[in-house]
């Protein structure tokens, strides 16, 4: 079992990573001092719930906790205000009060949705993340919670830190390969923004990571969480440094929006976005030419896409970017790589540069 | 012009109270350092907007600010997730970014709604309160923002402090008398929970306050804000002391819910709630018998109701209370008066005591 701490003063919290943690969830809640008088809400989805909800509730019940459940449809479409209101209804009808906790059992969608419920229900109740995907090693750390607006992603939310992250690696064994690849995209991102040595390690262990080899997976996730935790500790509310975590996300979010949040998984979209950032950096002489090739090869080693789907309309992608939170004072903010392990926040990328890279990335498979 | 400060460390903010402040709004925003590059959103309602929106935008435009507007229907029904989403749409379509401010021009409903928009839009942007009612001297101070769930009031929200409160007393001159009375209920409450001398002052100046005599009104609102600010400074997130501000609200919220948020104004409902709290206190020997009579007479001097409408069903009132945030670990929490100016938080009021006071308050007009 690995435990690390996100250092945020009085809002610091532990991340436990290991096997068999669901079976011990009750004890972990006890140690946190979660009330046994009040009922607690577990939010999960209709894919994860059937697999792991009983394991979690059995442990909680054995420790004397009462729980109610809200099971939402799997997928990004549940990150809506409509589903948010339904979960609130479950919380109220379940008799939750101010000492009740909200537990997110699932991937990034469930975590973001349940986290915004925890942040807003009665103006904030305790929140516990129980991630069940690789992608969630990223989203469950750092306190960004949100739902989508039909016009833009993650537009409605809060900074709300969990009391604890309980990361049971056993739950990853049932992930489909496409989800595994997409989840590893965020792990690779953590290397690219912060740590050249970890990036090399990822490249060398791509095969083992894709095969969920426990030792490599545990180490990779711990490193990913640790990098994220370091960045968040230094800038909780994204006033500066934290924005480097958005590598690949400026174009990535636009790709998801234009694809209707269904065509590409988040990790796949940001993989293309990271390739785009490397390409823009090379195009403007910000980074050497081989950086794009290295980045692209690394992502492809994980089976991730780097080409932009031909049918994605340039104008719609640009419009989606202009609705994003990263469009500030009429300028597009991109995170661009200088070299592997080092990025910078560049606030003056022009629309022409973006148009060019959109065209180049539609042809990347043909050209290479 | 009177200025006081809500002391909350790095979240401290000023409350400006005086005449002609709308006309100087642009200068106040400049002094706060609000960006002139980003557009700002003014949220108002269809009663206040026609009266004061132009006055506010003229001042902002003269200082070089760009604004967009969201005008919602007047009344508690706009404190819904549906209207919240509509205001978010206005924010996105208006091109707001992370440096944009949300301004609430209106009473408590607009303040609570716009405040939750400010707290949640892009996970939080600057918020400015421009209250236009007497009631809002209470709701605009302290950072409690929320919308209602159909099952319970203020169930979905945040603690989110404004950057500034700009309280232009000129806007109060157009208030209907019923709104004036209901607004003064919160001023009276601030006396009852904190300050016997101010309560006496309120009693002696009831006539002048109801007639909006500027000197008395300015002093009364400053005192009301100051008491609220002191309490909030000591307990921002309502972990203890702050709950005393809920005097009259346990039953008051239930009355509003059962009346469908339309029959009685918030101030009217908490007036009945304050009478109920005094009665419960007397019934359980917590306070001397004359306390109920004094409280009732004081409220009636302001033309406020103290009797519970006959048609309000006991069981529905009880059920609504059990859905309230003040129902914790299966017990009803009431704020009860010891004497004028002193209250205590009492967590063990029984359902029988509440049933008794509901019956007594339905007959109060007949008995007295």
TrEMBL record, chains A, B:
Cofactor note: Binds 1 divalent metal cation per subunit. Can use either Co(2+) or Zn(2+).
Domain 3-dehydroquinate synthase N-terminal: residue ranges: 71-181
Catalysed transformations (reactions): 7-phospho-2-dehydro-3-deoxy-D-arabino-heptonate = 3-dehydroquinate + phosphate
Enzyme Commission number, as recorded: 4.2.3.4
Superkingdom of the organism of origin: Bacteria
Cellular-component GO terms for this entry: cytoplasm
Protein known as: 3-dehydroquinate synthase
Taxonomic classification: Bacteria, Bacillati, Bacillota, Bacilli, Bacillales
């Amino acid at each position: 079992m690995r435990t690390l701490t996100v250092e945020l003063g009085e809002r610091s919290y532990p991340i436990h990573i290991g096997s068999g943690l669901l079976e011990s969830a009750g004890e972990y809640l006890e140690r946190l001092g979660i009330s046994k008088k009040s009922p607690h809400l577990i939010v999960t989805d209709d894919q994860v719930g059937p697999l792991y909800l009983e394991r979690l509730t059995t442990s909680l019940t054995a420790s004397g906790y009462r729980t109610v459940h809200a099971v939402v449809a799997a997928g990004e479409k549940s990150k809506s205000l409509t589903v948010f209101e339904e979960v609130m209804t479950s919380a109220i009808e379940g008799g939750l009060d101010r000492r009740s906790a909200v537990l997110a059992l699932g991937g990034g969608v469930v975590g973001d949705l349940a986290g915004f419920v925890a942040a807003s229900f009665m103006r904030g109740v305790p929140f516990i993340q129980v991630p069940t995907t690789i992608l969630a090693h990223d989203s469950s750390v750092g306190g960004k919670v949100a739902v989508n607006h039909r016009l833009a992603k993650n537009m409605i939310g809060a900074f709300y830190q969990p009391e604890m992250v309980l990361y049971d690696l056993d739950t990853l064994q049932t992930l489909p390969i496409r989800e595994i690849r997409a989840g590893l995209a965020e792990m690779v991102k953590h290397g690219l923004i912060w740590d050249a040595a970890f990036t090399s390690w990822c490249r060398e262990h791509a095969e083992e990571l894709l095969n969920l080899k426990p030792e490599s997976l545990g180490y990779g996730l711990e490193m990913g969480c640790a990098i994220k935790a370091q960045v968040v500790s230094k800038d909780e509310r994204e006033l500066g440094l934290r924005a480097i975590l958005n590598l690949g996300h400026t174009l990535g979010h636009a790709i998801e929006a234009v694809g209707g949040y269904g065509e590409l998984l988040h990790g796949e979209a940001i993989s293309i976005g990271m390739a785009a950032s490397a390409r823009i950096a090379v195009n403007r002489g910000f980074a050497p030419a081989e950086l794009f090739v290295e980045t692209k090869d690394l992502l492809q080693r994980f089976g991730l896409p780097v080409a932009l789907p031909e049918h994605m309309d340039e104008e719609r992608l640009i419009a989606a970017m202009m609705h994003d939170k990263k469009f500030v004072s009429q300028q597009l903010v991109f995170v661009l790589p200088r070299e592997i392990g080092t990025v910078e926040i560049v606030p003056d990328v022009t629309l022409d540069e973006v148009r060019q890279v959109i065209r180049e990335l539609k042809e990347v498979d043909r050209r290479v």
